[in-house]
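User: Structure tokens for both sequences below?

Assistant:
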Amino acid sequence: MTYAAPDLYDLMYHDFRADIGFHVADAKTVKGPVLEVCCGNGRVTVPMAEAGVDLDGLDLDAGLLADLERKLAARGLKAGLHQGDMREFTMPRRYALVLIPFNSFYHNLTQTDQLATLRCCREHLDHEGRLCLIAYHPSAKILAADDGARVLWKEVPEGEGVARIFNQMTVDRVEQVQRIHRWIERVDASGRVTQTHEYDFRLRYAGKPEMELLLKTAGYSRWEVCTPFEKYEADTYYDPPRPPVDGGPLAWSAWRH
């Protein structure tokens, strides 16, 4: 499986910073190792390793993991990297904190898969361990805008040119699944498109009451939810966190016991 090539992933999300400080600060509060599920090519992993966190990373995509391994080696950092499916994985140790950042939980496209992931994460927590999951709350206004039109999402400077990133999004409100078709156009200084990349992905969103039921069914004893920051494209997060906000990223904390 390839979600996006590592260089394209870095291009698209290099400015998504707000959750990095949140996760680093959170990881440094626990007494024990940390597991990052869906670590990708290290947008969050590398800063946590730089902060001295005892860290393992899990991802399904071998290409992203290989890129992360190169990044860690280049910086003289260490983290245990493992290829595996978040719905069913086995790690050699138990963790004080398991985190699933940046909407990655929503790549589970059925409620059955979402429950399997939550249960597997819970099984890998130590007795007092905690799950931290960040995912957006589905705003009716935002979902209504997913009408299938091709929209320019962002334009990113790249060398002497730019990269233009377009999304075409539709939503199945019955199954709660967003479908995203993405184009990335690399444009040189003269305005000529030199490369075009396209790929598709889907996300199954969940509202607050459904997420609470999922956590309860998966066996977690208690949970809390807050809005840690307004948007990803920033260097700050709310301190203290704010109550849940419709349409924004929510941070869920759920305890094994």
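Moving on to the next sequence.
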Amino acid sequence: MVTPVRIVAPSREWAPAFDELAGRLAPTVSPWSTRIDHIGSTSVPGLAAKDVIDIQVTVAGESDLDPAFAALGAAGWVPWPYRRDHVAPGAPDDEAQWVKRLVTAPHDERRANVHLRVAGRANQRYALLFRDYLRIRPDTAEAYSRFKRLAAELVTGDAGDYTDLKDPVCDLIYLPAEEWAERTGWSP
């Protein structure tokens, strides 16, 4: 059964929901993690989104991915066989820069995705830069909201189809975000 993608108005509940989830995650991933960040659309005030909290757990090295992933699975998080992110145009195409692990919240809990990425890798930086750029560019965030609503209406397949449609648009935001990062000295 296909569940349609539903984009909802921004919610003030998203930041506290992240705080609660991060607090629960921290003891499980602390042997490997260097930081836990709220990422994705729910991390940008005023941005419409799926009502799913995206969390990035940054681990120190690639050898930390699988132990943290296993610990989350043992704690009841649902492992997904997703092993890497898509490569943004102009970004390093080295496979190691895009490796990740993904778990979702247990089925009876608030919807959340936990992305495990390695510190300093391109995909770890991408998520934080994308978030921070949209936070300082409300007009860009509003245009992205409009696109997301339209995309959700057009996609009749699963959430993967929605993501595939959305990825190039995210890259169109990411590319000027990189220029902004260079110009301002932004760092994660």
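User: Anything stand out in the second?

Assistant: The longest strand covers residues 33-39.
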